[in-house]
Amino acid sequence: MRIDILTVVPELLESPLAHSIVGRARKKGVVEINVWNIRKYGIGPHLSVDDYCYGGDAGMVMMVEPVEKMIEELRAERTYDEVIYLSPDGELLTQPVANELSLKENIILLCGHYKGIDHRIREHLVTREISVGDYVVSGGEIPAALLADAIVRLLPGAITDETSALSDSFQDGLLSPPVYTRPADYKGWKVPEVLLSGNPKRIRAWQDEQALLRTKQLRPGLLEEKPAENNTKSLD
After folding, report:
1. E strand segments, 1-144
2. For the whole model, what pTM was predicted?
3. Closest to 101 in 3D by CA, of 80, 87, 70, 77
4. Mapping DSSP to helix (H, G, I), strand (E, B) and coil, where does residue 6 land?
5. Is residue 17 within 8 Å of residue 31, measured between CB atoms?
6. Regarding beta strands 106-111 and 2-7, do their DSSP bridges make them parallel or antiparallel, or are they unpaired?
7. Quick one: angle between helices 141-152 and 20-28, nearest 10?
8. Domain 170-230, CATH number (from 3.30.559.30, 1.10.1270.20, 3.30.360.10, 3.20.20.80)
């Protein structure tokens, strides 16, 4: 898989993409991630990428030309499945969205900055818009790093034990059950006995029960979204 990230502040993406699962996946060749500075096509001697907002509103807006030229340079070399703009009014990033995007071959992530991007970019160049939550941050770089991480960890070979990602929260529409490690007893704080039983059937039943219980307590809205046929257990 290849992910190309377009930004005016590439430095913000250096550390998040160089370490942990994403960094190891890049070194192993599981994913190719490239960060491109939109200022390559900036206008004038100062390589400007933004200008004043029509209509007199406060804040600067990213211009069409630098973004369009950067995207077209990349498109000249390969076909992209998606050109994604990280936007607070896009569709909410969920685990199913990450699962879907992990099956793509080539995607572009466009990071907005300042007041945002000229809307014509969204109309003519962007194929999809994704939000990481109902709040505003200074730019799309952190959301892009977050989205890239959510995608890359699902790719075969990114995680040593590939089954681990399948048991993450939200994969089955529920939160994950509690997890424990050694020692089994720390200052009287004990690991649930069932996890020490060595009985896979009992352990799985306990994990299913705990996942449903935690979801009901902490994120009941997930149960409302979950198809009825897959939500057969009851805690009543």
Report:
1. 2-7, 32-37, 50-52, 60-62, 82-92, 106-111, 128-131
2. 0.87
3. 80
4. strand
5. no
6. parallel
7. 60
8. 1.10.1270.20
Give the chain's length.
236
Rounded Cα distance between 106 and 102, Å, is 10
Domains of the chain, by residue range, sit at 2-152, 170-230
List CB contacts of 3: < 8 A, sequence separation 6 or more: 31, 32, 33, 34, 106, 107, 108, 109, 148, 151, 152
- Does the CA dihedral 194-210-207-175 come out positive or negative? negative
The CA distances from residue 109 to 69, 72, 102, 146, 203, in Å, are 15, 14, 13, 11, 41
Tokens of 130: 């994704």
Beta bridge partners, 50, equal 62
Q: Find out if CATH 3.10.180.10 is the number for domain 2-152.
A: no
Alpha-helical runs (H) found in the chain: 20-28, 64-75, 95-101, 119-124, 141-152, 163-166, 200-218, 220-225
pLDDT in tens, the chain (236 residues): 999 999 999 999 999 999 999 999 999 999 999 999 999 999 999 999 999 999 988 899 999 999 999 999 999 999 999 999 999 999 999 999 999 999 999 999 999 999 999 999 999 999 999 999 999 899 999 999 999 999 999 999 999 766 566 556 667 789 999 999 999 999 999 999 999 999 999 999 999 999 999 999 999 999 987 654 444 444 43
